[in-house]
Amino acid sequence: MMPAMVDDDDDDPDARGETASAAPVAPHSRLDASTLADIAASVGFELMGIAPVEPLGTGWYAPHAAAFASWIADGHHAGMTWLAERAAERLVPQHLMPGARSAAVFWLGHRVPDPPRPDGPHARVAAYAWGRDYHNVVRKALRKVLRRLIAIDPAVRVYMSIDTGAVLERAFGARGGVGWIGKSGMLIHPRRGTFGSLAVMFLDRTLEASPAGHPDRCGTCDACITACPTGAIVAPGRVDAGRCISYWTIEHRGLIPVEIRRGLGDWLFGCDVCQDVCPWNRDAPRADPSRWRPVFAHPDPLWFLTNGDEALLAALSGSPLLRARLEGLRRNALIVLANQGRRDALPIIEAFAASDPDPVLRATATWAARVLGSATAGPRAAADAEPLVRAEADVPIA
Predict the structure, then answer these.
(1) Catalytic position from the list 9, 11, 14, 163
(2) Confidence (pTM)
(3) Which of 65, 82, 263, 301 shows the smallest number of beta carbons within 10 Å?
(4) Per-residue model confidence as pLDDT tens digits over 64-73
């Protein structure tokens, strides 16, 4: 039985960011970049930088906006249609917050020391999802920053996003000196590596911008590109989500195409391969486990199939794993078990293939059972009422 991942924050992620302001009064002169940096450090942020918000997305921002527009045009956002639907706001930040003049970028490391690996087979989970949801942890710290800002300047207006608003966080992080955008597409800091959660706060104040960002220090290294199991890094700094394990295991809803399943390997949720091989992470400090409370670093995929919804929701409360939803986690678990050759799981997988009410899970379980040598899963699928399931009866098993 897995321990509960309970988060005591009462924050509810807002898919469109958060805007805050107070009654208009005369601004206080002490609100400056140095003061903001001190406040950020006092609440636990490890890095902070300031980037100017260019009018209508021009200036330093223009190449980042162009790269994003090209990424969308090439279809590299896969099924994440909301990225295209809100592209205008990402391309022109003032659409999110009219009057935005400065962007403060905050970094909080989330890679804790590796928990002990259990004996026997287990799945892999991206490091950011081992414990508490970074949205809640970072939002709690960011709201502390906001309260102190308002105490200094009650008239300040801000827009806050922790990977929830239509903000190109890494672009602002690069201009704010928090790091450079590496070949993996990740923001890299020379001392802290890549395992950091980002937050951006737009302010209607002109704060002194950080010096020009870190130069690109990837050099000739292409470790992330060559190590990616699915070839998702199609060019330096550009990831095709349609090939990315993180996309398929977290964002994609529904059946995972058969040609993708083997490539997922033992990744249940997300993927860290490009970060694990990055030299800049070799000596990067690890985060405080007491802050992140890691629980799900090495779960047994079978656990997701042998517990009901109520038990899973209770155990996963406050965990980023719920981003994939229970049906997604069970789908992923079935694929991992098949990829690991877990014949001990075959009776449970057969039960899913025979009677689960979700046709996606029946179809995935049919494939997994056939991979593990079932003689009955294929014929049973051929008689299923759902075309999605019937199609799995004759899928070639590699």
Answers:
(1) 163
(2) 0.92
(3) 82
(4) 999 999 999 9
